[in-house]
C-alpha cells in the first residue's frame, strides 16, 4: 500500500504542456489524461469492458453525492467498495459531492459545520461535513479522493468569494485531520487532492494555491472554473493556478470541457481532466471527431456510409457508419446512445494520448495550434 507517486517525463519547449505518469495501487496513469465520468458507478450507456477495450480509459470517476444516496453506503461497504461493486479494476477518483450539493440539491443551507441539503431523489434531508464526506469516500474506496469545498457560482462578488474561500480552506484542514484519524479501508492507498477556489479573482486564486501547496498533498485540483465564465477567463485563471501550484505534483482541472478547452489547458500545464460532455453530447447526437464536430441527427448523414471516424483508435468508430448511427438515433434505439458515447469518449482519450506523444516529441504547441481549428470545424 503506497501513496500516489508522480513522475514528470517531458515538458514542451514552447508551452507549459507536460507529460508524466502517476502510480496508484490500482495501476499507472499516463498524463495528460481524460477521466470518463461514472457518476453513479457507471459511465452512462458504456460498460466497463467497453471502457477498457474501446475507450482505452485509464482511470474513471465516481461521485460521492450520488453514490451516497443510491445505492447507499451499506451496499457499497458490503461489496468491498466501488471497484468490486462495479467491476472496474483500474484507478478510480471520487468527487466529494460538493458541486452537486451546491448545484443540484436545492434548498441547501451552508454553515461552518457543512452543507445541509435535500435529496433530489426523495427530498430527505442530509448533512455533508468535511468529516462525513471523508468517511463516505473511504467507504466508496476511490484511489484519489477530493476535499469537500464550496464551488462559488459565477458570477460572485468579491466579498462572497472571500468568505467562501476561507470556509473552503477551513474545511480542508478538517478533511486532512479526519483522514489522519481513519485508516485506508480496503488495504490500498486513498490519496486526498485539495481544491483551489477563489472564483474569478486572481489574488484569491493565488492565495488558495499557496495555502493548498503548503499542505504538500500528492496532487492538487483546480475547481470553480467552467461554471459559466468566458473561455478566455478560464484559460487565464487556470494558467495562473498552474503557475502557483507545485511542478512535481499532478494538476487536475475539474469539469473541463470541450476538446479544444482540454488542449489549451494542457498547454498551460494541466495534467488531468474530467467532463460529462462526451457522453452527454453523444446522447444528444453531437459527435466529436478527428475531422470536426458532427450533428448526426442532420439529414446530410442519411446516406453517408463512411465510418464515424477512421482517424482514431476505436473499433466502434471504424465499424459503424454515420448513416447507421443516424438511423439508430432517429429510431431512439438504445444502441445508438452506446455507440455515440463510446465514440466520443474514445475520441477524448485519443486526443490526450496524441497530445502526450507530441509533448514527448517536443512539438506539442505547433500540433495543438493546427489541431484546434480542425476539431472545432462544424461538419
What does this structure look like?
The chain has 379 residues and is of the alpha/beta class. The chain folds into two domains: 5-274, Queuine tRNA-ribosyltransferase-like (TIM Barrel, Alpha-Beta Barrel); 282-376, no CATH class. It is built from 15 helices and 17 strands. The chain has helices spanning 48-55, 64-69, 73-79, 82-86, 98-103, 130-140, 158-181, 202-213, 231-244, 259-268, 277-283, 315-319, 322-330, 334-361, 364-376; strands at 5-11, 18-24, 27-31, 33-35, 60-63, 92-95, 109-110, 115-118, 125-128, 144-146, 191-193, 195-196, 220-222, 251-253, 272-274, 286-289, 292-295. It has a five-stranded parallel sheet with strand order 4-15-14-13-12. The chain has a four-stranded parallel sheet with strand order 5-6-10-11. The chain has a three-stranded antiparallel sheet with strand order 1-2-3. A hairpin with a 2-residue loop joins strand 16 and strand 17. The mean pLDDT is 97.
Largest sheet: 5 strands, parallel
Q: Report the total helices.
A: 15
Give the rounded overall mean pLDDT. Answer: 97
- Count of DSSP strands: 17
N-to-C span: 49 Å
Summarize the structure.
One of its GO terms (molecular function) is tRNA-guanosine(34) queuine transglycosylase activity. It is built from 15 helices and 17 strands.
